[in-house]
Amino acid sequence: MKINKLIPNLGTEFKNREHIILRDFLALERTKLANERTLLSYIRASLYLLLGGIALLKLEDFQQIKFLGYTSLTLTVVLLIVGIYRYNKLNVKLLDFYDDIEQQSINEGSK
Q1: pLDDT per residue over 40-57, tens digit each?
Q2: Full 3-state SS string of the chain
Q3: pLDDT tens digits, one per residue of 11-21
Q4: Residue 14 lies in a domain
Q5: Which pTM value belongs to this model?
Q6: Which residues form the domain of 90?
Q7: How many independent structural domains does the chain possess?
Q8: Once rounded to an integer, what is the mean pLDDT over residues 55-73?
């Protein structure tokens, strides 16, 4: 079974049928930058969880809450994987969209 069938589609497939203008191109660039900013936010959150998990594990007087430290470390890895997966998924969509735009430019230039 493909992994894409297990994970729900978060967006729709969009094909550009019109000539792209500067405003649309700049919107694509903003989307790319927002995608990178979101990845950095995932990394920052996972680092905070990592630091919190290590701190909880180092507390010697609170042995009852060691499970929170291990949970935090597990969530660190999960959050990092989710962030990288979402970044790559949107990046692939953006690259496909850029390829469609370049193809349209080439086709219009040859007319």
Answers
A1: 999 999 999 999 999 999
A2: CCHHHHCCCCCCCCCCCCCCCHHHHHHHHHHHHHHHHHHHHHHHHHHHHHHHHHHHHHCCCCHHHHHHHHHHHHHHHHHHHHHHHHHHHHHHHHHHHHHHHHHHHHHHHCC
A3: 555 555 566 67
A4: no
A5: 0.70
A6: 24-99
A7: 1
A8: 91
